[in-house]
Design goal:
single chain; two-stranded antiparallel ribbon
Length: about 375
């Protein structure tokens, strides 16, 4: 004999939204108020109340980021007392928030400072499973004692020989260049796949005063080109074209590395964050197995972040591309090296981006009416 039983289970298929980490920046630097506190900021924040009325390392950069961040800008800040370790402040902040960008506002002085940033970024990835990009300031020119040549040499020495693909370095030529760049990177008018070089984004805003060297010479474009060639990030100007723009946001990757510019690392990091969540949900789940049916189903499952990132729109005859190209059948491969271990390989392909445009013009002297 038996009695009837009915069991109803709610199954979780991991179909919800992924948390948005992108475009959130954490600013750390010496400030005059709220030292040691993790502050939440947005476009409505009164920075005098949060960071103090006086100019400081952190307030200068946050103010510039807010001006360039556009609508719905959001950030975090941890003001420090002089001598406080930024690593401790970052650890404290990571207990409650998860940023995409960590912005160190107090200028780095030597290569060892930059290497410490790469080390910290990797420790965060390996211990917390989080991916951050660290953007660091270096000092602007000493107008009393340095020529532009001296400044170029000093800046190049800070980053020479470094292999730090999760670190970008911005000289404070105008005092707030780092904040200007971070605001541009966090502006929702463009995607994370766009370079800050993008001119259609508009001119940078709230940039500080133009610097001069010890001879009174204003910042030359040749110096900007030299800084960029040495993998530092700085503004860019176009003769006879109004406005001030930005160059690439360079990362300190090795020559021929995949992550020499920030937009490449940002799209891969976004995909990796989402795929990690999906992978955790499949641990010891026998719906992922080595049968052809399971492998086909799980290829669709793991490709979801790439499909979402690749969505594009055509409006009024203009194509607005997604963050990456749509994935194809060969964009994913699932293999089983052992009975209990599976490896998933995915391919993220960005769109081509025109950063060097050459226009060739010919003169047509033909005479169609002749003869």
């Amino acid at each position: 004999m038996a009695q009837g039983k009915v069991t109803v289970n709610n199954l979780n298929l991991s179909q919800g939204n992924f948390p948005e980490i992108e475009r959130k920046a954490l600013f750390i630097g010496v400030g005059s108020k709220n030292a040691g506190s993790v502050l939440s900021l947005n476009t409505q924040s009164n920075l005098d109340e949060s960071l103090g009325v006086n100019h400081s390392d952190i307030k200068n950069q946050v103010s510039a980021a807010k001006a360039n961040g556009g609508e719905n800008w959001q950030a975090y800040a941890v003001p420090l007392n002089g001598g406080d370790a930024w690593q401790d402040a970052l650890d404290q902040a990571m207990l409650t928030i998860s940023p995409e960008l960590v912005v160190l506002c107090t200028p780095a002085q030597e290569a060892a400072d930059i290497e410490a940033m790469q080390t910290k970024a990797e420790l965060i990835r390996t211990t917390l499973g989080r991916r951050v990009i660290i953007l660091a300031a270096t000092s602007g020119i000493d107008s009393d004692n340095q020529s532009w040549s001296d400044f170029e040499a000093a800046q190049a020495a800070i980053v020479q020989g470094l292999a730090c693909p999760r670190v970008g370095v911005v000289p404070l030529l105008h005092g707030n260049d780092l904040g200007v760049l971070v605001g541009r990177l966090c502006n929702r008018a463009v995607s994370i796949a766009d370079s800050p070089m993008r001119v259609a984004t508009g001119s940078v805003l709230a940039l500080g005063n133009a610097p001069v060297d010890s001879a009174g010479i204003e910042l030359p474009d040749a110096t900007l080109a030299t800084l960029d060639a040495n993998r530092l990030s700085c503004i860019q100007r176009y003769p006879d074209y109004p406005g001030t723009y930005w160059g690439d946001c360079n990362l300190l990757d090795v020559p021929a590395g995949d992550y020499q510019v920030i937009e490449h690392l940002r799209v891969v990091d976004k995909a990796a964050r989402a795929i990690r969540i999906l992978a955790i949900a499949r641990v010891a789940n026998r719906s992922l197995n080595s049968t052809p049916v399971s492998i086909a189903a799980n290829k669709t499952y793991f490709m979801r972040p790439l499909r979402e990132m690749s969505k594009s729109v055509v409006f009024a005859g203009t194509h607005f591309p997604g963050e990456i190209k749509p994935p194809s059948d060969d964009s994913i491969q699932i293999v089983w090296p052992t009975k209990n271990k599976v490896e998933v390989y995915l391919k993220v392909q960005p769109y081509n981006c025109p950063k060097d445009i050459t226009a060739n013009i010919i003169l047509d002297l033909s005479n169609p009416s002749a003869g």
